[in-house]
Amino acid sequence: MPNLLMSWALKKEKFVFKKNAATYLLAAQFGALGFGYILRSPDLQATAERQTNIRNEQKESAFDRQEAISRAQTCIPLMSEMPITDGIAAYFSSVEGGRIVIHKNRPMPSGTIVCDAFGITGVVALDAEGTPFVTDLRRMPPEEMQEILSSRGVMPTQATHPFANIPK
Question: What whole-number distance in Å separates Cα of residue 95 and Cα of residue 116?
Fold first, then answer.
């Protein structure tokens, strides 16, 4: 009987040892998995931030395009061989002898909406010295801008000699 009792005790001890070993192994696997997530979390966070930034840029781009289309319905087209850039001076101009002539004595009023054939619209503002400049740019596809300006009958003509001497 003692042999049988001892055999049963050994079996029970082995079972308990196997059960504890399995528990420790399972706990170690969960620990490693958790540690892996901790190590990967900056990557996951960076990916989520990039995706959020892309979504925000797409929304802003769509908003800019819609606002540019709205502005194009009433804008004053600038005769320019180059696209409008932020901070460019805003004076009335004309084509004389195939050249664009900028009239420095005729500034555009603040709040005037301007555009170009390259699909860019902007709003004229005045700096501290009263010099007019274009700001708050919005973009749309050039083809759409040209279509809108042509339908309005105000598509700017290309100058044959784009850079003329500015009269003083």
Answer: 15
